[in-house]
Amino acid sequence: MVVKIITLHSIYNPGSVLQALGLQEFLNENGYDADIIDYRPFYSTIGKNKLKGIIRKIIYRKNEQKVKNKYEAFINDKMILTNKTFRTFEDLENDVPQADVYISGSDQLWNMDYDCGCDEAYYLKFIKKGNKISYATSIGKKIIPQKEVKLIAEKISDFKMISVREESNCKVLSDELQRKIYWVCDPVFLLKQEYYEKIARRIIEGKYAVVYLSEESDLLNKIVNDIKERKGYKVILMGGNITRCACDLHFKDLGPTDFISLIKYAEIVISSSFHATAFSHIFHKKFGIILPAGNGERLESLVNLSGLSNRIIHTDREIKNLYPEIDYDLVDVKLNSFVDESKKLLIETLESIKSN
Q: Are 101 and 135 in contact (CB under 8 A)?
């Protein structure tokens, strides 16, 4: 059974690349012939703010090139892509990749605050006749304007199965479409810890904490200082060109392998990132979350499920919550049940399509 996935597989963000890999690898492990449509629209490596993205690429061009090299090497090594690269929706319409099933994959594909959420490709509109489903696709926010809800619902009304990554997105779409919408796990959870263990390598010796994607703030500075004073750990800042907090090392040319490796061997992970939090769960790490402004739904959804919502740090009084041991035996029971149900839904959907 040939399966084509369209998702954000080639932007230079570790979570995006790893979720794409997770879905493809899981499907191929289960006997499907799955590859990723190599769709690379012009906006995919610039970011939300075009001007800032272009300026960033000019000012930090040497580091940006190092990052690009790491990502492209990882993509070429780990992913199976279509032979043809598509740059526009029209390219896809004019030369549709053939498959038995098309999957609109995970990540914030339907978030209309971003270019991808306004791109017909991620709603599989280039498929006029065919089996369409979504897996763990995200609108990425808790409060969605009704106009956007209606527009998204119209675009995906012909999908045979719709599953999303956030519980609140599930309810909103279910109410609008008047049909069952499924809440499922992010694709990185579809692969076992052992898969990622094989990718990871120790980069930093000694005990350290990592900080990823948290904006500069008084709270972040207090957390970093507390970790240094209380534990004496090194602090490693992952990614970005600008140093946002006091750190012993700023790992600027961060690639997907570096991301997995630095989290795996860290003592504590501090982030505003869903996927850094996801891999903290996968590798059984102590972690703390500083919720991003206006876009914390996916993080809250995950820690509410795992029972670790106390790891969200709102004020300096809650910094102490970073240090207690986490009973990951209990966490795994909750998380694994959810992951197993997600896997079952995906496989049963594909088998149902196959038999019809």
A: no
